[in-house]
């Protein structure tokens, strides 16, 4: 006995469900799951204001080095903080 269709869209819904199941990617041990910075709890979003020309130069440099602007800025801030700490230690 065949199941009676209750809606004219049942075939379409069944097709969509089977496609969803087929298209689901199963993570494997070889494929680490990475988070984007926007969803990674180790990162926080912040806003800074840069002169337009400096922003353009930073963006061009990031593209040419195939890096993200946020990575470059974070690296430079870390260097600046270390240099400031070293200067403070020399004074003390």
TrEMBL record:
Coiled-coil intervals, chain numbering: none
Among SUPFAM superfamilies, the record links this protein to:
Ribbon-helix-helix
Region annotated Disordered, chain positions = 1-40
Compositional bias ranges of the Basic and acidic residues kind: 7-27
Q: One GO BP annotation here?
A: regulation of DNA-templated transcription
What's the protein name? CopG family transcriptional regulator
Q: Tell me which species this is from.
A: Halotia branconii CENA392
Where does the record place Polar residues bias? Answer: 28-39
The domain of life for this entry's organism is Bacteria
Q: Which Gene3D superfamilies does the record associate with it? A: Met repressor-like (1.10.1220.10)
